[in-house]
Amino acid sequence: MVAALDGSSVDLIDISGRTYFPGAKSASGGAGKGPYFIEFAKRARAVTAKPLMLTGGFKTRRQAEDAVASGAVDMVGLARALVLEPCLADLWNAGQKPEPVFPRFSDAPEGGITAWYTMRLTEIGAAMETQDFGDLGQVIRDYEGRDKRRTEVWLRHFANDDAE
Ligand SMILES: Cc1cc2nc3c(=O)[nH]c(=O)nc-3n(C[C@H](O)[C@H](O)[C@H](O)COP(=O)(O)O)c2cc1C
To answer: Which residue in 66, 82, 71 sits closest to 129, CA to CA?
Structure first.
């Protein structure tokens, strides 16, 4: 795929996501130690001259710098780290520490930690984020309640579409 895109007009290839295997754990729930697609990125580098971005598993500035310095990629993408600290790029540029503190939840159900990040993004969007990591069980209930309300809205909307 990457080799095929090399001959196309795309400006940038971002290597991200996790896996297509059914039942595989989600990336955002894992307690990984670093970028998990770096070897894949090195293989991609060998078959394309396009600018490459690597997303997934970056937790420290050092990891991000190493990935770029290795020559494998031109830039890194951050998801959870930016949810935890939206000003992270500025802090890194200013040489400030500490690194973002990733929450640890014991016995989190599959999908539960992604729900936590989703609700955290919702809080940030509403300028209502707090410093504490909250109770995961409550977050999942909020997340499910939000989805239920959204589903009702969508169903009403599409039901109306059908009627037109
Ligand atoms: C709130 C949230 C929602 C996500 N939703 C999806 C999704 O719908 N599809 C998907 O392939 N990956 C999803 N992911 C996983 C991301 O694609 C990605 O693998 C991961 O977050 C990589 O970056 P990070 O390690 O910096 O968080 C989600 C991650 C988070 C934190």
So the answer is: 82
